[in-house]
Amino acid sequence: AGTVVGASVAAEAEGLQLHLADNETGYLNVIKSGHRFQVMYRAGGGQHYLGRFDTAIDGAVAYARAVGEYKPPAVVAEAEGLTLHLSSTNSSGYRGVCPASGGSGRFEAKYKKKFLGTFATAVEAAVG
User: Fold this and answer.
1) Cα distances (Å, whole numbers) of residue 92 to 5, 6, 41, 57
2) pLDDT tens for residues 10-57?
3) H-run or E-run covering 66
4) DSSP output for 72-92
5) Nearest CA-CA partner of 56 in 2, 106, 6
6) 94 Cβ partners below 8 Å, 6+ apart?
7) Choice between 32 and 90, residue whose per-residue pLDDT is larger
């Protein structure tokens, strides 16, 4: 049996079902990295790095969001007079918008691999 770092392991956080594992952190694809926690997983034939987090739970929440446990807030199709590009496969609900790494709760916008910035909300990033 693995040993869990820190306090108790939570099965749910921020309205998400977390993926538990019998390992050092208690969470699937969350590993201890120095004084922080790193999240990496394989999907679609590739390795995906989600970042480093202050707590194992923050990492587990990021992983749950990345693999589809996250149900984004209501997605709007228009904002500031613009038609937004919706995505049913992206956790943010918008094409080219994803949660920023590090578990900050902010969103990054990219277009054709070009970084457009970090925004407070998914809608702001989609308008970007």
Assistant:
1) 30, 30, 19, 20
2) 777 777 788 888 899 999 999 999 999 999 988 777 788 889 999 999
3) helix 56-66
4) PSPPPSEETTEE--B-SSSTT
5) 6
6) 75, 84, 85, 86, 87, 122, 123, 125, 126
7) 32
Helix H or strand E segment including 99: strand 97-99
Residue in this structure with the two tokens 């990345």, named with its chain if needed: 66
In the chain, the amino acid numbered 85 is H
CA–CA gap between residue 11 and residue 78 (Å, rounded) = 36
Whether this prediction's pTM lies above 0.90 is answered by no
Residue pair 53/100 in contact by the 8 Å Cβ criterion: no
Residue 83 predicted with pLDDT over 80: no
CA dist., res. 96 & res. 53, Å (int): 23
Give me the sheet containing 36-43, strands edge to edge. 30-33, 36-43, 46-53
